[in-house]
Amino acid sequence: MIETIGVLGGGQLGRMLTLEAKRMGFRVVTLEPLPNSPCGQVADEQIVAAYDDLRAIGELGARSDVVTYEFENIPLDSVLSLESDRRLVRPDARVLHVAQDRLLEKAFLRDIGCLVAPFARVGDQRELEAAMQSVGFSAVIKTVSGGYDGKNQWVVRDEAGAREAFAAARGALSIFERFVPFDCEVSIICARGADGTIVHFPVTENIHDHGVLATTIVPARVGEDVVEQVRHQAAQIGAALEIVGTYCIEFFVCERALYVNEIAPRVHNSGHYSLDATQISQYEAHVRAICDLPLVEPRLIAPAVMVNILGSGTGDRLEGVADLLRDPDVKLHLYGKRHAALRRKMGHFTVLGPNPAAALEKAEAGRRLLSWRRRVEAVPA
Ligand code: AMP
Fold first, then answer.
1. What percentage of the chain has pLDDT greater than the value 70?
2. Are strands 45-47 and 27-31 parallel, antiparallel or unpaired?
3. CATH of the domain spanning 118-178, picked from 3.30.950.10, 3.40.50.450, 3.30.1490.20, 3.40.50.300
4. Residue to mutate (ligand 1; options 140, 180, 187, 208; most atoms within 8 A of CB)
5. How open is the CA angle 334-337-343, to the nearest 5 degrees?
6. Does residue 151 line the site of ligand 1, with CB under 6 A?
7. What is the model's pTM?
């Protein structure tokens, strides 16, 4: 019987997962190098250790009945060591391996018949020259591993730009990907149980700012045909990888085609809205999936817009919260982070509306109310 869940990673996704797991009566132990992490603040215990500290990883495994992760950049060896200790890890190391390597991920997607942007491997100057010829421009160069939120990726428009970007990547193994001139970006959260049951959350529309998610609109303003294809492909990917847990698939929607951008085998920023707008959240669905509890089909209670509250680098004190909270349709979530560095995810709010357009209007008005100011420290008497 599963009583304790181990969470690798101590960020906001782990925090929201933990809050839902605790509501359902589970114990949670997290492992994260920074003390007092967003997840550690709400978990029963936090093991403060590096993700590659195999002794600490072993300790997490020993204290947990199932181990999961809240982001992909956990060293694969750490998850493999848990599996070799016969600990239950969900999703398993094979899934993590594909999701944390952009080349493996794209090749896997192409092999199962999904459309992906044309891509090539770039490990050295010779491969860069070949990629520029075979893939063409405009393009995006991304390091194969270790990137997130637009970090370690560069949009390039010509050969000089590509050489410069590859130099900025300091020769790290990279993927050279054709830029997709998308009409919009959408994603879907699914949850899959060990018995193969898959449930789908509504398809959401995502707007990014400098590679960081800024806004999620649900349901996405796309046709029923796109929704059907997204649901079908996401289920196909989950089944092919035998994912156990919540996962997210991101897509680019073009006029006539649907490209898969990324697989995230974990709870995802574009699913935050589900805490307030569906009768079961992506976090509860994850807990149910990894603990062998029944999965139920999510239902949207009301259209919603989720706004990420990002740091601006101008201060750590959030102003405007009282004004934002005057709206009865706003739900605010803050992550307990002290420093609001530029574009750091500090919190989010979700607006429920009678329709996506009305929710979007309120969301934009809400965003304008918030700003970051310098903390005023108490002056000693
Ligand atoms: P990723 O880390 O791959 O999810 O990329 C972050 C964001 O960069 C995406 O959500 C897109 O907005 C943009 N992006 C990444 N790859 C491409 C591409 N091949 N074509 C167009 N935009 C892209």
1. 99
2. parallel
3. 3.30.1490.20
4. 140
5. 85
6. no
7. 0.96
